[in-house]
Amino acid sequence: MLYKKPYLFLLALVFALLPATAQSLPALTPPGATAGFYTRNLAIKKAFFIDFQTEWNRLGFFDSIKELAAQDGEVNADDLQLASEILNVDLVGREGILVVYPSGDFFALARPSANRVDTLIALLNKSMKNPETRKGWKLDRSDEGGTTVYAGHNGELILIGSEGAVERFLAGERGLKPPVEGDLAFWFDAEPLWPLLETPDLGLPPQVVRTLKTFGGFSWALDIQDGGIFTRSRLPLNPDQDADLAGLLLPGDPAWPLDELPRGVGASSFVVDLAALGDYLTGYAQQFGQDLQLDLSAFGNHVAMVDAGSSDPQEMLQNPMGNLLIVLETRDTLTAEVTLLSWIQMLAGFSTPEGSGGLTVEALEIAGMPAKKIGVGMLGTLYLVTGEDRLYLATSERAARLLENQDRVGDDGTYRQLADTYLPDRFHGVSYTNNRRSLEQLAQMLPMMMMQTIDDPDAQALVFELTDKYAQFLNFLAQRIGSSIGYQQVQGNDVVGFGFTEVAW
């Protein structure tokens, strides 16, 4: 969910590593990795997070976590203190890399900051049981679970890796070229693993192998700048494997603009050819002898969602399905409505302890359109509103009433500014979220939710204290984090994504 974006900031703090002064760490890493995690420049940009870290420390999270861990008995205070020192943003450096190879080997390098490298190396030296020196590296070998792992340093860089990868490194095999770079970056290249899919031991049917080979991998990068956080992603697809699946994931039509959707906490719009999806899933199931008939021909290929949000914690707890308004394009609205009602009826059949259903239907009118209020057992109430060429499915009354609201996403000045700045002329997916409102609502709801999940009075008191601190931190974040916008776009056989989140550092 978009309200979880603050975790990206905390992850950036935890994993900040430093840039090499000479060769970059990828240039020192053995090539041929199938997946990797790479970070650079985060120590330079550490100043962006000073206020966030100050507030985190002021709230005393570490003391509460230590107290909770002590009550659990599985982790002692000394272990937590050591972990805190190792992961402290002032203790790590500016560049680091962790990669995994098709063989299962892994390899990691980091260059700690000058004022902390001695501390890290001292901790590493202290933990070594049988150190040895090889080609200028002080290494310690450990064998656990049938895997040999080396950890060590050369006085500047810190290394950890499985035996195969470390031996390649010591033999001079260098020169990895990451497909994506950023302050924080991750990638996965699926093609080196394709031979594994066809091994007899795995026993995958040819249809499944082709489906998996349709996905060429994934890459994602994050960059921290003065105005906020930027993200980029790329999903390469291989139509020569499963052409129908690739066609579903590489749509040709543009998505609905967000401008005319009702204004809520957030909104998204994307293209998915539901009729083609139904045919694909039906045919796929039949290849395995399953009698699945999924006729979605009455639906179009545009879908949108609006999150109505809520500032009432009790209301949120009473709506297990949230406050979403889902908009479905239709080619034959009457048939699409009958199809959707049949699915809801099946859902109701599993929504009571006895499995006997609990479906109730009440006719009404919303925003001048015919509607149905549908009780779905313990899942709550849905609202189905019938438009001229689309259906509106709301998971709560608050979401359904968005249709009566004259305020639109396009009326949001921040959205307008971000859309004019970042959205291209054509995209097949787009989203916008008012993170400030989302964070404030989560902060209000969280303590009540946590209190209802714990029965033990002692644990309840500790969890409430920790949850209350976290709610205060969320309210702090709400004052610093603004809105976010993102889109997906087809470029050849790739799906590329872009996102931006406003942050007042």
Give structural notes.
The chain contains 17 helices and 20 strands. It is globular and about 80 Å long. The protein has a domain of 254 residues. The N terminus is likely disordered. α4 runs antiparallel to α17 and α16 packs antiparallel against α17. The protein has 505 residues and is of the alpha+beta class. The protein has a 20-stranded antiparallel sheet, with helices on both faces.
Topology diagram in text:
Layout: H1 6-14, H2 25-28, E1 35-40, H3 50-58, H4 61-72, H5 77-87, E2 95-100, E3 106-111, H6 117-127, E4 131-134, E5 137-144, E6 147-153, E7 158-162, H7 163-170, E8 184-189, H8 194-197, H9 206-213, E9 217-225, E10 228-236, H10 243-249, E11 266-271, H11 274-286, E12 299-307, H12 313-318, E13 324-330, H13 333-348, E14 359-366, E15 369-376, E16 381-386, E17 390-394, H14 397-400, H15 413-422, E18 429-434, H16 435-451, H17 457-480, E19 481-491, E20 494-503
Antiparallel strand pairs: 1-2, 1-8, 2-3, 3-7, 4-5, 5-6, 6-7, 8-9, 9-10, 10-20, 11-12, 11-18, 12-13, 13-17, 14-15, 15-16, 16-17, 18-19, 19-20
Helix pairs in contact: 4-17, 16-17
Mean pLDDT reading: 87
Strand residue content:
25-35%
> What fraction, in percent, of the residue positions are helical?
25-40%
- Biggest β-sheet strands, sense, barrel: 20 strands, antiparallel
- Give Rg in angstroms: 26 Å
How many strands in all? Answer: 20
Distance between the termini: 22 Å
- The helix count comes to 17
Short description:
By secondary structure, the chain is an alpha+beta fold.
Main attributes?
single chain; 505 residues; alpha+beta; 20 strands; 34% helix; signal
